[in-house]
């Protein structure tokens, strides 16, 4: 066991066995201390003593002349939490008090989560944003503060929503916009911001249409440019299904979109019914005579 840790454990055991009453204490602690700030602990009485401030992962020790304040410089205590303050003096019971270290009040960093990173356009409450506010020492800022969320498109259109933090966190639901593209999702609080990228892709096809023309013994089937209901071009590679039903049989061909259009050649059967579909969306039918 490290010598420093043995000393601290010994002090804690002594404090537990010989803890003095707060009445007549030589310590006069501040109500709380903000993380990273300088502070002072006044003492009373006479003689020399040793002061310990013990917290998770940190121990401060100072030699004390009772009756004089014990000064601590900036950044002495950086981690928010409750600390145990112990004053020991030869021949006297150890005095113990607690000291609360609170997060700094000014945000220095945002941890911003945005989900999903890719989704269809025009989806109500489709995007979730959650922001966590930290001070300069990575303590979660627990005091309520406003957070602004903004989702903006490349064209400059934006939607904004505001929320107050609760125990350091604020969250929001946003609609995906009506146009495909790479959108900027920004969270801001107290002068700091964090940005995430949301890719919005076209939705399902809308008003699917095709045409047919004869080419020798075949029919050339071709769709109009395939768009979603917002006018966005459906992504290339999306499968379009062409079907031909005729006396005695049926033919089906799956074709991926290329440059927004799908086309295929199928045998020309007199009286055949031609149809087209993309996913769950049905297009027009053509009866070939």
Looking at this protein, list some descriptive labels.
289 residues; mainly beta; Immunoglobulin-like; 3 domains; five-stranded mixed sheet; 1 helix; 22 strands; rod-shaped; disordered N terminus
Characterization of this structure:
- The protein has one helix at 3-18; strands at residues 32-34, 39-41, 48-55, 58-65, 70-72, 81-89, 92-102, 109-115, 118-120, 127-134, 146-152, 158-164, 169-174, 181-189, 192-201, 210-215, 218-223, 239-246, 249-256, 263-267, 273-278, 281-287.
- It is mainly β and 289 residues long.
- The relative contact order is 0.11.
- The model is unreliable at 1-7 and 13-24 (pLDDT under 50).
Given this structure, which CATH class of the largest domain is correct?
A: Mainly Beta
Describe the strand arrangement of the main beta sheet, using strand numbers: 1-7-6-3-4
Low-confidence regions = 1-7, 13-24
Shape: rod-shaped
* CATH architecture level-2 label of the largest domain: Sandwich
Would you tell me the overall average pLDDT?
89
Distance between the termini: 95 Å
How large, in whole angstroms, is the Cα Rg? 35 Å
Structural class: mainly beta
- How many strand units? 22
Helix content: under 10%
With helices defined by DSSP (H or I, 4 residues minimum), what is the helix count? 1
| Pattern of helices and strands | HEEEEEEEEEEEEEEEEEEEEEE
Amount of beta strand? over 45%
What kind of sheet is the major sheet? Answer: 5 strands, mixed
């Amino acid at each position: 066991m490290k010598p420093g840790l043995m000393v601290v454990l010994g002090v804690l055991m002594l404090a537990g066995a010989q803890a003095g009453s707060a009445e007549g204490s030589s310590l006069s602690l501040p109500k709380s201390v903000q993380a990273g700030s300088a502070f002072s602990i006044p003492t009373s009485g006479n003689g020399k003593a040793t002061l310990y401030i013990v917290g998770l992962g940190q121990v401060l020790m100072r030699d004390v002349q009772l009756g004089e304040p014990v000064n601590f410089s900036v950044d002495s205590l950086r981690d928010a939490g409750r600390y145990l303050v112990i004053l020991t003096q030869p021949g006297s019971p150890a005095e113990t008090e607690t000291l609360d270290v609170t997060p700094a009040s000014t945000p220095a960093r945002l941890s911003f989560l945005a989900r999903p990173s890719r989704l269809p356009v025009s989806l109500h409450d489709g995007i979730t944003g959650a922001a966590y506010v930290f001070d300069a020492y990575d303590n979660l800022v627990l005091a309520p503060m406003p957070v602004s969320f903004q989702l903006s498109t490349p064209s400059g259109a934006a939607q904004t929503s505001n929320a107050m933090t609760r125990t350091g966190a604020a969250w929001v639901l946003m609609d995906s916009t009506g146009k495909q593209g790479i959108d900027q999702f920004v969270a801001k609080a107290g002068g700091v911001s964090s940005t995430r990228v949301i890719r919005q892709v076209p939705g399902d096809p809308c008003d699917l249409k095709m045409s047919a023309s004869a080419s020798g013994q075949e029919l050339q089937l071709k769709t109009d440019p395939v768009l979603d209901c917002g006018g966005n071009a459906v992504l290339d590679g999306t499968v379009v299904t062409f079907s031909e039903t005729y006396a005695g049989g049926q033919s089906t061909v799956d074709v991926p979109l290329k440059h927004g259009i799908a086309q295929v050649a199928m045998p020309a059967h007199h009286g055949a019914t031609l149809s087209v579909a993309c996913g769950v969306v049905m297009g027009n039918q053509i009866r070939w005579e």
